[in-house]
Inverse folding.
């Protein structure tokens, strides 16, 4: 943790705001990394015409 000192030109409010933004950025980065790894691990194999998107918007009722 950084210490506030007399040599630090930032006011305590600005210091707190910058720290909170930094923490939020780190949390978002961790979340995005987590989501990316989940998407890479759950890749589904698609075969046939579905990989080209053919028939994706058909409304077939019996």
């Amino acid at each position: 943790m950084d210490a506030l000192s007399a040599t630090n030109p930032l006011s305590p409010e600005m210091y707190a705001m910058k720290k909170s933004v930094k923490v939020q950025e780190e949390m978002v980065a961790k979340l995005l990394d987590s989501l990316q790894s989940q998407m890479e691990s759950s890749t589904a194999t698609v075969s046939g015409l579905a990989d080209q998107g053919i028939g994706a918007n058909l409304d077939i009722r019996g």
User: Anything to note?
Assistant: The mean pLDDT is 76. The first helix runs from residue 12 to 41. The two ends are 65 Å apart (CA to CA). Residues 50 and 58 are 12 Å apart (CA to CA).
